[in-house]
Amino acid sequence: MSALLQLSLSEVAKGLQAKEYKVEEVVSACLDRTVATEPKLNACISVLAEQALARARELDAAGPPCPAPSSGCGNAGSTPVVPVGEIAQSLWGVPIGLKDNISLKGSRQTCASRFMENFQPCYNAEVSDRLLAAGAVITAKHNLDEFAMGAGTENSAFGRTHNPWDLDRVPGGSSGGSAAAVAARQCYAALGSDTGGSIRQPAGFCGCVGLKPSYGRVSRYGVAAFGTSFDQVGPLTRTVEDCARLLAVIAGPDAKDATSARLDLFPDNLPGQDFVAQALIGASREPGELLKGLKIGLPVEFWESGVSAEVEAACRDILNKLEGFGAILLPVSLPHQKYALAAYQVMSTAEASTNLARFDGVRFGRRGIPSDSSAAFDDLQELYIASRSQGFGPEVQRRIVLGTYMLSSGCYETYYRKAAQVRRLLVQDFEKALGSAVAGASAASGTCDLLLAPTSAATACKQGALAGDPLMAYKMDLLTIGLNLVGLPGLALPVGLGRESKLPVSLQVMGRAFDEAAMLRLGAVIERLAPAVGEPGGVEAVCK
Amino acid sequence: MRITKKWETVIGLEVHVQLKTETKLFCSCPNKFGAEPNAHVCPGCAGMPGALPVLNARAVELAVRAGLALNCRINLESVFARKSYFYPDLPAGFQTSQLEPPICAAGSFEGIRINRIHLEDDAGKCVHAGNGETLVDLNRAGTPLIEIVTEPDFRSPAQAAEFMRRLRYLLVYMGVTDANMEEGGMRCDVNVSLRPSGSEAYGTRTELKNLNSFNNIEDAAECEAERHREVLEAGGVLVQETRQFDPENGITRALRSKEEATDYRYFPNPDLPAVRISREFVEAVAAAMPEQPEARAKRYLDDLGLHQEEVAILAASAELGDYFEAALALQNSPKRLAGLILGELLPECNRRGLGIAEVTGKAGHAGQGEPVAPVFTAERLAHTAAVIESGKVSLKVAHELFADLLDSGEALEKLAEQRGLLQVSDSSALEGAVLEAIAANPEEAAAYRGGKSKLLSFFVGQVMRRTKGAGNPALINELLKKHLQ
Q: Is the ipTM of this complex over 0.95?
């Protein structure tokens, strides 16, 4: 494996800026690594080798946006030290992957569905545009559970993705392809989407850092919708600093998304937006200085939900260290968390059932074949039934049926409205624990600065363990869906390997709305205190 | 066919009105009729994966305007819902409409109670080709509509049709819609039921879908009421269902019954935050609304002293009335301005087959063709009136030059000057023509002097001919009288 691949995103970006190596070298290293590992991982649906190399050469020809001082950019003579991240093209030349439900012109957008096998999007997602504007090179479209519905990247029409730590295990889902690719160093970072934990849970299973931003923080424009009021796009990276850099690029209001938060309209009432600076502070200052008096809440409903002994142990190790540096650990209660899974299932499937109505075989995607394949359809109904039955996999069909039922006349009041009420109560629970975002500081007595809990109750499970037991699969999201229901941000980061499984254990930092900066700062502290997870053994063993 | 007195017909309307906006309800595609199929389509209105809706503020404004014009309560918060059903002309698989609360509620117009007005997007169109293929045109998909729902307050089909005519007139006048019926700009679903005269309870109703002419509304309701009567009088039972009117054969046909009705699975559209408007916004919309036509007519009659016939035309269109008043603000000669509009401008528009907006420069709404340049603005109209009032150019010359005035973009006095038609108000310049006219007609001059004073107008005409119409008539009169003494 090329030494370039050992670098973090922040490091490689710095080296590229300084012209220590060419973009083409970095991109080629990633593509080579992808070719070497894909037969075992199946993390990618499309590898964009040609496009990525062409863009790499273009970038090399143009040179970095603000080259080294010797070349005479800026005020010659002085040494312009421009920290990466504060310049417009903070990802210049950096290979990054996209979950394949994010639209990128020039490459198909399958959503891991047979239905969309050959679908070519005609426009870029806002996050794709922002990555490209920041100078990134998109190297691959990653595998996922079909339409992001699943927890193990096993529901893909393009085959399952394998966990680089143990090829017989799931990488988590639905952004499992992205997590596996980042862990296996096919790219420096990836964007996933998180509806009920789909960034954080696979990041946890693969030993990566994953962040679900506050709802409205990142534009959803161009991301095939699953649960509209839950979906957020976010980074999967190998370090907290990398995560902050990527978030800084994709965050911010977008006029094309009506649910995008117009934080620019309320500049005075907001937590800081300096993600990178806060991550760097967390990584560099004395832990005691940062942790003394910090109030960290431990939601009992999360810690007492059947968390495995090794996950609990690894997480408790960190808690002890935080406490040792002066952090105040407070048990908090989120009483409505016990209804979260049910409310999530009702509302996310309801939204999904209408979001997926457009896949009807009429305008795009795969049109079904009549049962008597020589004949035409007798009527429109048959065309719809054939297209949707043949195009969607079983899990997607299950959720469409479920969501359609939830909204049907008579059921709406019983299920959907009830779930919406639970959602509001859970918002209140979190507000009680954390205080509201606008109030800012934890001045209000009894509220915490941040919450901590395991990302998942257990480490990565064996492949096939979730098949045939949809309810078990849904429970995989138990500790992550709460944040999607209430719209708050969450950061999952590795805190070592489980003592029995030797698989990564992940801790979840939960923060106030739009206070990702505080989460990233604490995340960077934890990253220093936690034992390194090292290299994923499963893929290393077979892809030297 | 007449419905006997035994039965009372009860009718309610659901009226769909296309809003006069530049762009569609949730994307920036033009809201324009008559383009090549699928010319006005983007990822949003084509329902592409990942595309998102953003609400058109102008559509909200026009819906509020309609609500105010129909005396509705304006809801400061309203919610868009997804209304799900499958059809090839519905790209997202759901329509985005308002269920509860709608933007306007509880109004009344012409004595009919308005239940609600809500905003929604229109579907595209399926074009059934001759070869059995069906083609989809999404130009109309996403165009903004309001649906106006009345209470079942009509007691005859004719009353419902007349209401529709007045409603259309008002909404066009208010600038809410262009409401071209042939283009589907205004469509109507008619709910019909019968009940024994004197009864309070409503009978079973049927709904007639998508009627797009006033006559169709009346004929369809008439024929459906007759069908109800026949069924009821034969002791039969009516089924609540949706029906279609066949104007060729004068019958209605069942489309689907209540049992077969689609379950639309309404729920709040999570892509769109609730529509929140302020009291100030509503007040600003109210302030910017055109004056109601009756109030305007009364003002023209009483305050400006215009004739009934003039008022009937000027106050009938907000566009024309606004134009007139813009000119009036610059030149306080109401009669002169009204005369120019009715006597010159409108006939000229008719000859050219142009709408008033195209000539006066207020066009610009999609679908009305290119504006005619140079336009005859209110400023130019006022100036023209002022030139005539000042006596520089005679009315007669202005009439002759009017077409050129529109074509050239020049000022009236400039055109008159170029052609030597400025009104001559200099007595020494006119005196020659007066003397000439008298000398050339000695017999008439003698008769005039003999007491035939009516011959004065003959001499005015003679002088006018010699000055090519540019002589000031008052001065000519004066000079003639002097020289004929």
A: no
